[in-house]
From TrEMBL:
Keywords, alphabetical: Metal-binding, Oxidoreductase, Zinc
Top-level taxon: Bacteria
Gene3D superfamilies: Medium-chain alcohol dehydrogenases, catalytic domain, NAD(P)-binding Rossmann-like Domain
All copies of domain Enoyl reductase (ER), residue ranges: 14-341
EC number of the protein: 1.1.1.2
Catalysed reactions, as listed in the record: a primary alcohol + NADP(+) = an aldehyde + NADPH + H(+)
Enzyme class at the top of the EC tree: oxidoreductase
Protein name: alcohol dehydrogenase (NADP(+))
Family per similarity comment: Belongs to the zinc-containing alcohol dehydrogenase family.
Keyword Oxidoreductase included in the entry's annotation: yes
Organism, as annotated: Streptomyces caeruleatus
Length: 346
């Protein structure tokens, strides 16, 4: 066991505070990672505040982890000391079900294990990346390409794969018109990735406040959804709409923006249920879908794709004692576009 410093929420909705946690000794197939940077995902806030249901405390959030390998178990074959690596939303799965065998560990029917606020196969609570070190099975670690600096790579472990996976699955590419709802931590990565895939990209945001940013990130068009004319002008325009917001939407209005056979895919997860008139789906053979991160192999594919195209996340680097302030700013949509903790300050 190794004692390391961390930032934890002691109870639901309580401010995070500095503490210490125990990391397990390195097992045969484990990798010990010195965490260098950890992204702050809106999911961290939802879970620390029990917005998605009952949680386990104390909670050390963080599933956007970038660091360097400092020790490997005797059976490790994929990594060695000094390698630049990342850990995303999962640290284990059953590895035996059809989904796991197909590389979709995020949909493990035996129960995947989250990087934090979960119980591992050993019965121990998992603690996330707001800490100095983490021990993870090598099969749930990914390699960060040399073309990506660790700080801008960290948010790719959730925000990157969460947008890359549905964009690839639903065929974003040349000749396709893609809209991204929201230009936040997820949305700005959706714009970058959809643009790099070759799609014509439109941002749908509440206002035009971030229009210049959106266009610089790769959007071809930018519209304010607070303007009723937007929905009239863009009716029937898009092959794919990616919703990255965590607030309830008028899905009927957004479905009207799809072409026949188009899809609206949700990666944002509002805490409240939504209402939907099914005629907005039936008319035009439209699809309302959801998507959750990606498997380990696809996460590696995404990292390689981002490195090949020369981009990571747009970040604001903060010290650990600024985490609570950062949570407030995320909830107020006051970040461009991902907070990343310099874990040397923990």
């Amino acid at each position: 066991m190794t004692t390391v410093a961390a930032y934890a929420a002691p109870a639901a909705k309580a401010p995070l505070e500095r503490t210490t946690i125990e990391r397990r000794a390195v097992r045969e197939h484990d990798v010990l990672i010195d965490i260098k940077f950890a992204g702050i995902c809106h999911s961290d806030i939802h879970q620390a505040q029990e917005g998605w249901g009952q949680a386990t405390f104390p909670m050390v959030p963080g599933h956007e982890i970038a660091g360097v390998v400092s020790e490997v178990g005797p059976g490790v074959t994929k990594y060695q000391v000094g390698d630049r690596v990342g850990v995303g939303c999962l640290v284990d799965s059953c590895r035996e079900c059809d989904n796991c065998k197909a590389g979709a560990e995020q949909h493990c029917t035996g129960g995947s294990v989250g990087t934090y606020n979960a119980v591992g196969k050993d019965g121990e609570i998992t603690y996330g990346g707001y800490s100095q070190k983490v021990v993870v099975d090598e099969n749930f670690v990914v390699r960060i390409p040399d073309g990506l600096s660790l700080d801008v790579a960290a948010p790719l472990l959730c925000a990157g794969i969460t947008t890359y996976s549905p964009l690839k699955h639903w065929g974003a590419g040349p000749g396709k018109k893609v809209a991204v709802i929201g230009l936040g931590g997820l949305g700005h990565m959706g714009v970058k990735i959809a643009h790099a895939l070759g799609a014509e990209v439109t941002v749908l945001s509440q206002s035009l406040r971030k229009k210049d940013d959106g266009l610089k990130l790769g959007a071809d068009h930018y519209y304010a959804t607070s303007d009723p004319k937007t929905f009239k002008e863009l009716a029937g325009s898009f092959d794919l709409i990616l919703s990255t917001v965590s607030a309830p939407l008028d899905f009927g209005a957004y479905l009207s923006l799809l072409r026949t056979g188009g899809a609206l895919v949700n990666v944002g997860a509002p805490e409240e249920p939504i209402a939907l008139n099914l005629f907005s789906l039936i008319g035009g053979n439209k699809t309302l879908a959801g998507s959750a991160i990606g498997g380990i192999a696809e996460t590696q594919e995404m990292l390689d794709f981002c490195a090949e195209h020369g981009f990571g996340a747009e970040i604001e680097l903060i010290n650990a004692d600024q985490i609570n302030e950062a949570y407030e700013r995320v909830q107020n949509s006051d970040v461009r576009y991902r907070f990343v903790i310099d874990t040397a300050t923990i």
